[in-house]
Amino acid sequence: MSFEEMWDELLPVGRDSASGGYRRFAFTAPELECRAWFAEHAHRRGLDVERDANGNLFAWWLPPDGRRDGAVLTGSHLDSVPGGGAFDGPLGIVSAFAAIDALRERGAVPARPIGVAAFVEEEGARFGVACLGSRLLAGAITPERARALRDGDGRTFAAVLAEHGLDPDRIGPDDDLLARVSCLVELHIEQGRALTAPIGAASAIIPHGRWRIDFAGEGNHAGTTALADRRDPMLPFARTVLAARSAAERHGTVATVGKVAVEPGGVNAIPSAVTAWLDGRGPVDDAVRRTVADVEAAARAAASAHGVTVELAEESYTPTVRFGTELRDRVVRVLGGVPVLPTGAGHDAGILAACLPAAMLFVRNPTGVSHAPAEHADTADCLSGVAALADVLADLAAA
Ligand SMILES: [Zn+2]
C-alpha cells in the first residue's frame, strides 16, 4: 500500500467536517481508531506489535536472526491538539511504514531491528503534560504525578489507562525497552516557515514550558453587584494575558495563552474563578524563566488590585535540547547534505534525547502553519521524506 493510500485512510479520522481541524485526544475514539490502524498496518507487514506499560505502541521489524537489541527506532505520535492539522504526528508514522515498504522493495535486510513507535499523549491536549508517553518511558515524569493528571472531565490518567487494559501501577521508566534501542530518528512536519528545502534535520529544540494560572474571586450577579463590590477574576486574567505579550517582547521569547476555563461560565454572572494556561518558549532558558517571572508578577499585582487570589503552577518545562552531533551528522551525510535548523516545537525525540542518541528529520511546510487546519506538506515533499527516512534507516540498521 502506497504512502498516499495509507494517508487517505487516516485522513477522515477525528476531522471536524466544518473546520477541517482534527481532535484526536489520547485514548478517545478517534485516537483509538488511529491506534487500531497502526496495529493493522504492523500486522499486515508482519511486524511484532508491542504496547508498553505506558500505553506507547511499537511495531518491530526483526532481522532474520531474531535479534532484538540494538534497534533503530522511528515513528512519532497519533494524537493531536484541539483543531490541529493532519500532519503533526501521523506524518512520522505513515512515513515510517512507507519507508519499511521501500526498504523491502529494495530487498534490504536489516541487521538490526527497526521499530515504529506511536508515543501516547504527545500534545498533552488531554492531560496537560506534553510528551507524556515518552516522558514516562524516559523517567522524565514520576509515575505518581502522571497517574494523578486529570483531563477536562476530571478523569485521571490512571483511570483512563485502567479502562484501556493498562495497569496504572506499572507505568514509569522502562530501562529494558530503552536498552534495546540504539538510536531514534523521528520524522516530523516542520512547524514554521524556516525550512525552504524539502527535507531538513534538527539541531535543537528551544526551551519551552507550560504554566497553569488559577485566579479565584467571588461569583456574583452581573446586574446587582456594584463595581466596587466585585472580586472579578476575569480582570487580572485579562491583564495577565497582555502582560505575557509584553514580557515576551521584552525578553525576545514567545508567550501564548491559548486555553482558558471560566467558572461558572454564565453570561450574566461575574466569574468565581478563571484558570488560564500559559505556554512560554524562547531561545535560551533564562529568557523563558524571566518571561514567566514577569507574567507571574503582573498576575499577582493585578489580582491583589481586584481582591482576587492567584496561584501559578508549572505543569511542564523542557530545557534546551541539543541533538547529538554524531547521529545528526551521520543522517545529514546519508542524505547528501540537508539544512540543519532548530525548532520551537517540543517532540518525543527531544525527551528521549536524554536517554539515547536521537535525531529528527523535518518535512517542509510551505504555509508555516501548524496546530491548525492549514498545516500542510506537499505530497512530493512527503515522498521525499519517506525516501530520506528509508535511506537513514537502511544506513543505521545495516550493521
Ligand atoms: Zn508533533
Report what the structure shows.
By secondary structure, the protein is α/β, with parallel strands linked by helices. It starts with a helix and ends with a helix. It contains twelve helices and 15 strands. It is elongated and about 80 Å long. The mean pLDDT is 97. The strands form three sheets. Strands 1, 2, 3, 4, 5, 6, 13, 14 and 15 form a nine-stranded mixed β-sheet that branches. The protein folds into two domains: 281 residues, Aminopeptidase, CATH 3.40.630.10; 111 residues, Alpha-Beta Plaits (2-Layer Sandwich). The site of zinc ion (ZN) has 5 residues, from loops.
Shape: elongated
Low-pLDDT stretches are: none
Distance between the termini: 28 Å
CATH homologous superfamily placement of the largest domain: Zn peptidases
Number of strands: 15
Number of helical stretches of at least 4 residues: 12
Q: What is the mean pLDDT?
A: 97
